[in-house]
Every structure is written in structure tokens, then in C-alpha cells.
Amino acid sequence: MKNVSKYKVEKGILIPLIILAIISITTIYSAQQLLTDSNTLYLKQAMWFGIGFILAYIVMYIGNDFLYKNVYILYIIGIISLIALLLFAPTINNAKAWFSIPGVGTIQPSEFMKIILILTLARIINDFNNKYDNPTIKDEFLFLIKVIIIVMIPSILTFLQPDTGVVLIYLLITICMLFVSGIRYRWFLVAIGLIALVLAIVLGIYFINDDLFIKMFGSDFFYRIDRLLDWQHGSGMQLENAMMAIGSAGLFGSGFGNTPIYIPEAHTDFIFSVFASNYGLIGSLCLIGLLIYFDTKIISLGIKSYNNINKYTIAGIIGMLIYQQVQNIGMTLGLMPITGITLPFISYGGSSLLSYMLMAGIIFSISNENLRFTNK
Length: 376
Known about the structure:
The protein is mainly α. It is 71% helix and 2% strand.
């Protein structure tokens, strides 16, 4: 029997995460020449990473079983926090999405709700599969109704903030987890048909009669749809400057700390454009390659897992990660609409980074469980 430490993480997951942390901190440092409000953001990011790694190892120490067992309590806490936002949070950037805590900064509950939703759906799917060896269509229908209710409550509350980008992440998480749940694939055809019908009706009203659309859905939803559909023509300074910074970088970039073109939100939404401006096409391809390698190691971890509930959790995590990576880099290159979605483990942010590190803790726990099982 091999002598294995009680708590151990696969190097193929831990090392890329450490490299991403270094890239994040140094790129935020490089972006500071473009910022006017603070010159210590890279130090704060380093602090958040330090706290995040501690939280990740705490999660690994207590184990995912504890989280699965108490996930409904976490879900209720998450829903209460989203309701409290709408009632008590200050309006920041025309949205009620953050609690402001003196001496700490802002906290965005929807970031943590993504992780809670993954754990909740994993528990629901696992309980369903343990209960039914060969579920009927009726059993699956009732199961899907339960899933829809669980997902729609935070989706509606988050949409009202308003934060359409996070709502899309909720829905994508759900689709990925249901896809590996074992239910009949015909349900996905039904869902695609219903979604297509609803989109056709909504977009039909949008294109045919603006006034009727605003009366039915409100002006706020109208402008959100308008921004999504007209993103290529109404890109604005953010996208134009980001694309110029990337395009002028060449193969090897302008060098560390040298971003010759001003980029709004350089440390958050458009941090990839700062990195690309510094290191050029070669550096950008290396970063994308690192992200792909990190994602494939997580997928491999889920495939090797001996616990089905962990497989469902990994499906939700990888769906969320890949979508945010593609969306953020895509919008920076002008290939996707600008939705305000950050680049995981790279963009600056306390709440978002801590939520990703909690997710990393869940991954660490699954990795540790696999290593201990295989070395018994």
C-alpha cells in the first residue's frame, strides 16, 4: 500500500491554478497605468488569492460530503441574500447587485449563488438517480419541474438586479448538469423547441412593434435586448480600444507594463486585452492553451471520479468555466456581445475570485478523494 498524504491535489490542477494567479496579479499590475482610482489593486488581488487558497484548502479539509449534506441551507441563505440585495443594497452602476461593506469593499452574492446552484443541482440529480433505477417519463417530468423551480428562483432575482449575464450562466450550468444526469435526451429536444418558440415570439414583438414590447416587458428589458442584438454596430470605445490594443500588439506584444492604448475596465472585463497587448499573439495563445489544459484536467477529474454526485458537480463547474472563458475572450475580440462577464481566475474582483477559489476547493476535494481511493 502506497503512503499517501491525507490531503493531496493533482499537480495538473494545482500548478496551472498557481500560474493563473501569477498571470492575474502581474496583468493587473500592468493595467494600473490605465486606471485612475487605485494603484494597489494588484496587492488586493494577491490578498484575495491568498485568502482564496486558504478557503480552498478549508473546503478540501471539510470535504464535499459536508457541503452536499447542508446544501439546502446554503441555497436558502443564497436566496435570502439575493432578496436582501433588491431591498437594501445601494444602486451601483444602475444595478443593485452588490452589498457595500465598509473597510472590505463590495460583495456580489450572485457570484456565490453560481457555486451554490451547482451543489444543489448535484444533490437533486444524485438523489433522483439513487431513488429510481429505471425512471418513467412521469418521474423525469416531476424531477425536471423541481429543477426548474430551483433554478428559476435565483434566475428571476438576479435578472431583477439586473444581471442578465449571470442568469445565462445559471441556465448553462443547469443544461450541462442535466446532460450528464442520465435523463432521456428527448427532454432536450422539447426544451429547445420551447425556447425557440419563446424567442421567436419575444423577438417577433421586438422587431415588429417597439412600443408593444416595452409595454409588455418594460424598457429595461428592451434596452438589454437591443444591446445584445446590436453589439457589433454599437460597440463603443471599450471594444474598439480593446481590439486596437490587441491588433497592434503583433506577435510578441509591447512588453510588460506597456499598454499604449487606453482600455476601460482594463483590470476586470477587458483584462485579456491588456495581457494580449503586453505579450502579443504568442503570449495570448499560451494563455488560451493554459486555460484549455486546466479545463481538460478538470474534465478528466470528473471522468475518473468514483462518486456520481462529484461527476454532476464537475459538469456544472466546467460548463460555467468554459462559457465564461469563451464569452469573455470572445467579447474582447469582438466575436461575442459585451455582457460584463469576467475571465475566471484572471480578472480583478473580491467576490468573483473568492467564488472561483471556493469552486477550486470543491475540485481539490474531488481530486483528493480520487487519489485516496486509487491508492488504497
